[in-house]
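Mods, move this if it's the wrong board.
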Amino acid sequence: MAITDNTFTPEELDAAIAANPALKDHVVGGVKKLGYVARTADEETSFIGTKTKEIYDGLDKDIFDTSGIARNPTERTYDYAKRVIGKFKEDTTPLQQKILDLEKTIADGNGNETMKAQLEALQKKEEQYQKDLTDKDTKLFQKDVMLDIRDGVRGIKFDPSVKESVVKVLVDNATQSIISMAKEQKNVDGSTTVVYVKDGKTVLNDKSLPATAADILADILKDVVDAGHQGQGGGAGGQGGAGGQGGRKPSALPATLPATVKNQGQLMDWLKEFGLAEGSKEYDEAYDKFGAGLPLR
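Not the wrong board. Structure tokens:
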């Protein structure tokens, strides 16, 4: 077999590239022509950083547009969201003031049956308002945790001898384990931090600092990590394959978004309808393609 008659083995191709490094650019170009994404470790790091920044910038804009409260220059998005939500909880809203006024009027003996009905209706609205605030707080926390996990998975190169289906199961199990460990820690300066707690104590890394999701993933998945290529990107969804649910491929997606998809949350649900698994390479590429310009919610 020889590379000249198109019957070469992967080993012969590796040897040819080693002997003639200029072939690498042709190989990468050929891979891209087939529709695959090919990036160096540095390019992948830059790409992830850019996309992560876009997500946080979108969150910052949504929070500011909703609240009118600006983020401090050195403030993390999660801390910014917590501060704004906390202010909403502390400040008396117009709805809460109406409830207070009605309660006082009724307590003073000046109320009537209509006021009592109005008070009950306003109290139900307030209850729903507080529930919505709590739900938003929880979703922001979960998004922070999932971004931490996503960055950790992308920083791992798995042993190519381990089947991708096995890797996916291991990553999914590790993800669920890490999510269950995630807690919000209040710091002395009033800020909050995501930490991972096991047996009642924060998990620490080898520098005795609170471990990140990447630290914990590396430990949980150490038996299937390609130690010689750690840190070059990849992950459960980054080694090729359909990366979907039910075998569907990105080619099944329409060319444009339907009018019913108006924000990033709806986009996530829409992509899953086409069998794309969240966190897979195909899901991320479709999300990047269709998500540009969409508001968070």
